[in-house]
Write a structure and sequence with these properties.
By secondary structure, the protein is α+β, with helices and mostly antiparallel strands. The protein has 2 domains: 13-61, no CATH class; 75-174, Alpha-Beta Plaits, CATH 3.30.70. 26% of the residues lie in helices and 13% in strands. It has 6 helices and 5 strands; from the N terminus they run αααβαββαββα. The chain has helices at residues 13-17, 19-37, 44-49, 92-96, 137-141, 167-174, and strands at 75-77, 102-108, 120-128, 147-149, 164-165. The strands form 2 sheets. The protein has a 3-stranded antiparallel sheet. The chain has a two-stranded antiparallel ribbon with strand order 1-4. The structure holds iron/sulfur cluster (SF4) (2 copies). One iron/sulfur cluster binds next to helix 5.
Length: 188
């Protein structure tokens, strides 16, 4: 196997002392500070056009209606247009979730249920929002388009247990998603 030796670049005396870099960094910070004093900070135009001015006065002002369409916030479960749980508890999202924030207990669907042919739905589904890093892998991997990152960005709680979203909470945030996956229902 060929070995490639990568030569480390030689540092100049100035780089070795690193004061130059610190000074450069401070100059950039100062430049931004002065610019913002005169309303010319980075992103000022976007904020000004949103009617918020330079600094958003949170919580009086909120991003809600200013969020871009592609914003990915709290993950949640969705039902379909017939109010069926889209999730078939395949556990792919639980497997892929990098910080192991998802915990699913699969449950069988009764044979006399309207959706018996689906076979499974989650008996319990929890997402620990203290662990979640909003990466969106669960959304990407889901074969049923049952889990989505919603535009909710205020996920707070006064205890650890409050930060664990159970199935009811996840459907409350997610709501209904119309269209897309139809493979299990009569429209197949
Ligand atoms: S967004 Fe990422 S971290 Fe959060 S539950 Fe989904 S896969 Fe896990
Ligand atoms: S949300 Fe999607 S990936 Fe996760 S268990 Fe349900 S069907 Fe599978």
């Amino acid at each position: 196997m060929a070995t490639i030796k990568v030569k480390r670049p030689d540092l100049s005396t100035g780089e070795k002392i690193y004061f130059g870099s610190i000074f450069k960094g401070m100059l950039i910070t100062l430049r931004h500070a002065f610019k913002s004093l005169f309303g010319k900070s980075v992103g000022a135009d976007a904020l000004a056009s949103s009617g918020m001015g330079i600094t958003m006065q949170y919580p009086e002002q909120k991003w809600d209606e200013h969020l871009p369409e592609y914003y990915r916030g709290t993950p949640a479960l969705v039902t379909d247009e017939q109010q069926r749980e889209r999730c078939v508890s395949c556990q792919l999202c639980e497997f892929i979730c990098p910080p192991k924030a998802i915990k699913i207990t699969p449950g069988e669907i009764d044979s006399d249920d309207e959706w018996a042919k689906v076979e499974k739905r989650p008996k319990a589904f929890e997402i620990d929002m203290i662990r979640c890093i909003y990466c969106g892998m669960c959304e990407e991997v889901c074969p049923e388009q049952a889990i989505y990152l919603r535009p909710d960005y205020i996920t707070v709680g006064t205890s650890r247990s409050e930060m664990v979203h159970d199935k009811d909470r996840l459907y409350e945030i997610g709501g209904t998603r119309v269209g897309l996956v139809n493979k299990w229902n009569d429209l197949k």
